[in-house]
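Ticket reopened. Same input as before:
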Amino acid sequence: MAIVFSTEDIHPRDRLSYWREVASNAEVELSAQPAFRATLRNQVLDNVRVSELDCDPCEIGRSARNIARAGCDHFLLSIQLSGRAIIAQDDQCTVGENGSIVLVDTRRPYTMKVQGGGKSIAVIIPRRALEARLGAAAALSVRAMDAGRPLTGLASAFVSMLPSRIDAVDKSIEPRLAEQALDLIALAFSIEADQTAVLSSVRATALIRLKAAIEARLCDAALKPAVAAVAAGMSVRYANDLLSQEGFSVERYILHRRLERCRRALEDPTQAYRMIGEIAFSWGFSDLSHFGRRFRTAYGITPGECRRRAQATGESMQALRGSSTGQ
Amino acid sequence: MAIVYSTRGVHPRDRLSYWVEVASKAFVRHSYSASDGPAFLATVRADRFDGVGVASFESDACSVVRSARDVARSESDPILLCLQVSGEGRFAQDDRQAVTEAGSFLLLDSRRPFSISFPGRAREVAFRLPRQRLEARLGNLAGLIARPIAADGPVGALASKFLSMLPSRVGGLDEAAGSMVAEQALDLMALAFSEMDGGTGTVLSSPRATALYRLKSVIEAHLCNPDLKPADAAAAAGMSVRYANALLAQENFSLERYTLHRRLERCRQALETSAQAHRMIGEIAFSWGFSDLSHFGRRFRAAYGLAPGDYRRRRQEAMAGVVVAVESSTSK
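Engineering reply: fixed in the latest deploy. New output:
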């Protein structure tokens, strides 16, 4: 359900104090003209929170005190749809406009000046969910990504469509939709962010290339480490070396990704009609007993049990997820 | 890089034949008819990322037909996703008919004949998807063919917008980014289709039907191999020979007889195709996994009432004068 805060029905005299209260719930501080008009619409999509803000000129700030009081550790992803926002953190400053994407680390103080009023979308992403995809994301903080670049444009447009859709999305689909949004955001940052901002960018880019080559060939039972390495334009030795920093070899990474894909399919209620063997084959396993053994080693349960548990606990999981993001 | 073709610079007399050729390359082999004939105006912009073909079409009213012959002569067997950008499209495949309006999309299976008509000027984006990569996500696709996803469903709308943004953006991507975007697009399509009918998956067939489909795909993929044994086919489809036979029994086949039936059908298609008129009959039979010519001849006659050579002559006489669809290089 969307929670909407609006100054619309509030007497101009009381607007600013009303909005200060809204802001303090969001653990930020606000300064603006007394007749300040604003509407904020908050929604939850699995593990991320998506907010639409339409407001008059104002300045939003997060102080060290706000941070100390806040229990959570998030990134804020801001997409300025109309108007301009000047976002500053540490000695970094950037301008968000025309759908550009700005990432802000909410563990450090920042200010956001909304000029001329405008619409924006803010996505609150758990640090872990973003860093799992991007590595240390702090280096990407407060650098506007231009929506004219192809991937940033895709990510920006995709995220901008979310607020009007979330309400109607089936609960069981939410996690996958959130995952898609995060993958897309991560993809845009990993490919199109200013490369000087990314640590050891050559290795990081090579690793992304390798993982992409593997991901695209998972269904192919003939995928061998050598095939993946060649497709990513590197030697098997280098490929193994790259993955070793995540504790994998190429072979084990392929296995890991196949198992993950199968597990996701087994947990998906819309795929309950598929036979387990068929799922395993479709993700490139060619030997069912080998699949069963590996699956059990990785997750401690058999594929059949995994499916039964997901079915049994499906609803209570949903409830849990909903309450943890709503804090 | 995107390649753009337009009938604009082409002499009106040659427009339609030019268009059949370029559109077949960007989509799948098919034939065209347009009510406007010479005045026919159309452009296509074709691109490719990570094994996924994407083509944006804009054309006057026309109809597209993919015949059994087109199917038999195509080398690849992609699943096609057609997204209507503007105008209206009317689709028919198998026993299903569907209409797409702006923003809605549907799947077609290039392995079977289909027809599309655009009653007026229309724009659409067509994706050529590697069958395996969509099947891995959705299982059996048969129940999803020619069933439009409307642009007003929540995930349908997201998928539709996302997919319609791709043609103008995939051109500049490097390989790694292209393949990640392709994965995203496939995941999103799968999400939209799994949401169909309330996300319960009820449109998809029963486990038996899925297993049967799986079995048939395995057999189909190994027809050329003369050593294909019933036990291998069953094992590759992840089931026992007994279960495989039980599945095929509902169509009055055994594993062995089904394999024979498919080989004979393939040979018959080859014998009907004028482009393959230069091939010797024996060579065709061997290429479809027969290892004994007299056995092939007997079986063929038993199935179709004519010897293979007679069959070919009859068909060639009957087909004389029929316009042959344009050769299309469907893969890469």
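Confidence is low (pLDDT under 50) at residues 198-205, 321-332 of chain B. The longest strand of chain B covers residues 42-49. Please confirm and we'll close it.
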